[in-house]
Design brief:
Layout (H helix, E strand, L loop, with lengths): L19 H11 L25
């Protein structure tokens, strides 16, 4: 069976940015992640979905 699932990540931050949207934008462009296959599940594609932040 093939399907799409969404895994959410909760991230708590401290930042010197005066605007939280700048911190979010930086994290979205600099984040490195890994989702690995297991014995019973083959990961065929991953994508970090960008949050549309106000500027």
């Amino acid at each position: 069976m093939e399907d799409t699932i969404y895994l959410l990540v909760k991230v708590r931050i401290k930042t010197s940015y005066p605007n939280i949207h700048d911190a979010i934008a930086e994290l979205q462009t600099e984040t490195v992640y890994s989702v690995s296959s297991t014995e019973n599940v083959e990961v065929t594609a991953t994508e970090l979905i960008q949050l549309k932040t106000k500027k």
